[in-house]
Amino acid sequence: MLNQNPEQIARDHIDKQLIASGWIIQDKKKFNLAAGLGIAIREYQTDIGPADYVLFVDKKAVGIIEAKREEEGIHLTSVEEQSARYANAKLRLLNNDPLPFVYESTGEITRFTNYKDPKPRSRNVFSFHRPETFLQWMKEDKTLRARLHDIPTLPIEGLRDCQITAITHLEKSFKDQRPKALIQMATGAGKTFTAISFIYRLLKYSKAKRILFLVDTKNLGEQAEGEFRSYTASEDNRLFTELYGVTRLSSSFIPNDSQVYISTIQRMYSILKETELDESAEEENPNEQFFEPKTAVPVGYNEKVPIEFFDFVVIDECHRSIYNLWKQVLDYFDVFQIGLTATPDNRTFGYFNQNLVCDYGYEKAVIDGVLVPYNVFTVETQITKEGSTIKIGEKVDKRERLTRKKFWEALDEDEVYSGKQLDKDIVNPSTIRTIIRAVKENLPAMFPDRFLTPTLSKGEGDETEIGNSEILVDAYANGFEVPKLLIFAKTDSHAEDIIEIVREEFGEENKFCKKITYKSLEDPKSVLQQFRNDYYPRIAVTVDMIATGTDIRPLEVLLFMRDVKSRSYYEQMKGRGTRTCSVEELKAKGTPSARFSKDHFVIIDAIGVESSQKTDSRPLEKAPGVSLKDILANVAMGNTSEDMLTTLANRLIRLERQLSEKDKLKFAEQADGFTINHIVKQLLNAYDPDTLTNSETGIRNVMRGFAPIEIEKAIETEKQKLIEAAVAVFHNPDLRDFIVDIRKKYDQIIDVVNIDAITNIGWVKDHASASSALIEDFKSWIESHKDEITALQLFYAQDYRHRTFTYKMIKELSEKLKTEKPLLAPLTVWRAYEQLEKTNGSTKSELIALVSLIRRVSGIDTMLTAYDKTVDKNFQNWIFKKNAGQHNAFTEDQMQWLRMMKDYVANSFHIDRDDFDLSPFNAEGGLSKMWQLFGEETDVIINELNEVLAA
Q1: What does the alpha-carbon distance between residue 854 and residue 805 come to, in Å, rounded to a whole number?
Q2: Cα separation, 80 vs 123, whole angstroms
Q3: Pairing outcome for strands 110-114 and 38-46
Q4: What would the DSSP string read from start to end of 605-644?
Q5: Residue 741 and residue 404: Cα distance in Å, rounded?
Q6: In angstroms, how far is CA 544 from the centroid of its own chain?
Q7: DSSP states of 191-253
Q8: Residues 6 or more apart from 193 whose CB is under 8 A from it?
Q9: Helices (H) and strands (E) in the chain, counts
Q10: Window from 29-43, 171-185, 378-392, 646-660 with minimum mean pLDDT
């Protein structure tokens, strides 16, 4: 209505929101409390003056609303005292108690206080609560915030320290009524298990009504559902789903009889917008889309899902879900919010009010042995770095992107391309082959213990060197077992090329290497399950599906053949390799040759992903290079801003010029008979000023005499009809796929002219300085403790060879090192040495590694040598000396016994009489057998071996 003052405008907005929330608005002179469950009476008289609105539920006064003009939005907390006075005032005609539910509202901003809460505190709410909610709250002895104080102390059995910290600190945050909390836990540390544990406690002890578990891909939702269904409550010993209902939303219908709801944030957004969503829109992480509108399309109130429908929202991968379009879903609900992420950035901390209740990053998880560290191996080729040129007149293969159909064509000009164009505009099979061949050649050096047959055919003491092709032949001929390896590809087409070349270069069959993507013809879940649990495939190639949230413990190598610009997304991708895996699990799940537990993984960087610039920033509006696929996905998600529809119209105009008549007809078939030109016209008309003005004028003429709020509502409805009509065809996923696929028919050039070559290969040099610093730190610690720790005194003593050290001494030294300097764990220092110098052998345990490292640092060894190799060599020398001048100093039975003693010393560092009661000696007759074989020489042999083997 024209000429309304600000207070009247504010009350119009408040009226509209109250009606949407199920309230009946009445005038104080014509009230009827029997007209419905919830009645809001304007200007109801109290003993201190009229209250703007008094709320009645089931004929009983329960709350008030203090209305203010929009400009007062910044002062609403100052109005709380005034609101409280009205809430505590006596109402005309009634002998009422103080009213517990109090709002301050401008119609744009609304704050709410529940005075039944302990330490009542106001909070922003999207809209007003429903009358039936207040009716339920009035029946409860305690509010949710009061019941949070009833949660008992957490039983810690079966929980990791980081999980105990997360849950206990989170529950304290709840008791302090902090609305948002952030849990940072490294990928693989058990975020989802932690979340289910505290969700169980919230349901059991605080009697939470409903909890929403938000994810951003369908894949993560399915995994979360699986974990809920397999979770057994330690306090109850029953499955979670035997106690509480768990529903994963796959349509717009939300049942109200569950306690836990799992949904993608895309689906929840579409539910609030009351639009349909095809499941294909849930397959990709929306954080990877490159178009964001200037302003997010607003969410409106939805009576089917009121703001109080949930009590808590848990946001998985929350660093991706708190921006623009998606933030509205979180702002809509009146809930406590709990964010879960491994890779928060500054905006994540800011959104969750810097309330970090658990800070358990990757480094801490590695120190605790929850996750494993990694090394980076780089493979750089000339063409990936510098690009290349195909000369004019050269006959080349061209290939349609979609069908992969090939044809020959002579170039009519030089084709100059950069490395960034590879596998998009240009495909150079030689580049892919060169990288895969280099990976194949170097895997045996990275994993020298992975042989299905006992040993390589090489001389004693020889080492497998990176790039040694002779060793390569021996390695694969002698049964080298390729560790589980995951390749990140750029596109599905790129993945197809990689798979073909991997199978060729490794000389293997189809099942050796498979693709795991959403568009894979073979069921991607089935292939993923095989990769996780079976021997085949050894190598998997993915584009999108298992970048995040997939647990593959036996995975030991990540090969990056695509770059990643998002820092957090890259960390998530690396997280696929961080899981620990016992030797038993490695053997059982596809790597029978494994002899040790997984203690690290390897990143092979073939694209410069480790050194490329990463950013945490979100894409800006109309960022260059936005894909048509992303634009269509945004529109299908309900992102129908003017910028979005205009951009889509322009893309379709360009596409229409390039299509054949046959393809235009196919488009119309998919688009309900509409041509591209017709759809473009509708898209542009949706925000055309003349069209909108004509529509508004027509409505005002037809609705003369109606209430202004009804006229404005009709005008807005008509605007939305224009928009919905314009985008209706794009809800069809088949049309969206057709548009994207038809665009892909542009040809790729296959460059078979330029042969690629390796320009740089080896462990990443950036790690050299870090490794050097780590070793120096280790040396300093050893040096500073050499006079106080017995084991070190023995190493540095002049008469070292005539003294002995025991397993217990080394164990105590190891524990002290890990306590004082956890980052200097022996296996970590060993890998640092491997980055800087040639080493002899591979470490088999932490204690053996420690002895080997101390020998290197103290100068006993000039090369870092596995202690068992030192013992082997010293044993051979000792036997040689014993045999000098005679054919054989020992019988075969004696030699067998001596070898057992040698192996025992290699693992336990010392042997004495008592040790013969232990394995393996006890099974062979123990000390008595030793006496039988060596007689009075027994003690001499024992002492001599202790001395010479440790030399």
Answers
A1: 13
A2: 11
A3: unpaired
A4: ESS-TTTS--B-PPPPTT-TT--HHHHHHHHHTT---HHH
A5: 12
A6: 12
A7: HHHHHHHHHHHHHHHS----EEEEESSHHHHHHHHHHHHH-B-TTT-SBHHHHS-EEE--SS-
A8: 163, 227, 231
A9: 35, 27
A10: 646-660
What are phi and psi for residue 54, nearest 5 degrees? -115, 130
Instruction: Return d(Cα 407, Cα 399) in angstroms, integer.
Output: 7
Determine contact, residues 215/265, Cβ cutoff 8 Å: yes
Residue 727: partners with Cβ closer than 8 Å, 6 or more residues away: 635, 636, 640, 645, 683, 686
Residue in the structure block whose two tokens are 């639009």: 275
Distances (CA, A) of 215 to 183, 220, 524, 632: 15, 6, 19, 21
DSSP for residue 566:
B
- Pairing label, strands 557-560, 374-381: unpaired
Structure token digits, residue 536: 């085949």
Give tens-digit pLDDT for 849-881: 888 888 888 777 888 888 888 888 888 888 888
pLDDT, greater one: 721 or 889: 721
Residue 67 · residue 52 · CB < 8 Å = yes
Residue whose C-alpha is closest to residue 483's, from 437, 448, 516, 527: 448
| Helix (H) or strand (E) segment spanning residue 776 | helix 766-785
- According to DSSP, the β-strands at 557-560 and 601-605 are parallel
CA distances from 15 to 52, 91, 129, 703, 824 (A): 11, 21, 13, 20, 66
∠ Cα 765 769 770 (to 5°): 105
Please give the residue that has the higher pLDDT: either 83 or 276.
83
Contact, 399 vs 406, CB < 8 A? yes
Residues 493-549: pLDDT tens digits?
Answer: 888 899 999 999 999 999 999 988 765 556 667 788 888 889 999 999 988 655 455
**Please, are residues 42 and 19 in contact by the beta-carbon 8 Å criterion?**
no
Q: How many CB atoms lie within 10 A of CB 30?
A: 7
Q: Which amino acid does the sequence have at 214?
A: L
Question: What pLDDT is attached to residue 172?
Answer: 96
Q: Distances in Å between the alpha carbon of 472 and those of 568, 760, 826? A: 37, 19, 29
CB-based contact 98:87 (threshold 8 Å): yes
Bridge partners, 47 (sequence order): 49
Q: Which residue has the higher pLDDT, 278 or 227?
A: 227
Q: Beta strands of 23-178 (E only): which ranges?
A: 24-27, 38-46, 49-57, 60-67, 101-105, 110-114, 123-125
Distance CA 410, CA 509 (A): 35
Give the C-alpha separation, 727 to 846, whole Å: 62
Question: Is residue 673 classed exposed, middle or buried when 0-12, 13-18 and 19+ CB atoms within 10 A define those classes?
Answer: exposed
Total residues found in the chain within this entry: 951
How far is CA 642 from each of CA 559, 683, 691, rounded to the nearest angstrom? 41, 9, 14
Question: 518 and 539 in contact (C-beta within 8 Å)?
Answer: no
Compute the distance between CA of residue 269 and CA of residue 215 in angstroms, rounded to an integer. Answer: 12
Report the distance separating Cα 292 and Cα 439, nearest Å: 39
Give dist(CA 66, CA 13) in Å, integer.
13
In eight-state DSSP terms, residue 90 is P
Q: Is the peptide bond preceding residue 373 cis, with omega within 30 degrees of 0?
A: no
Grouping H, G, I as helix, E, B as strand and the rest as coil, residue 297 is: coil
* Residue 733 buriedness (CB in 10 A; 0-12 / 13-18 / 19+): middle
The H or E element spanning position 769 is helix 766-785
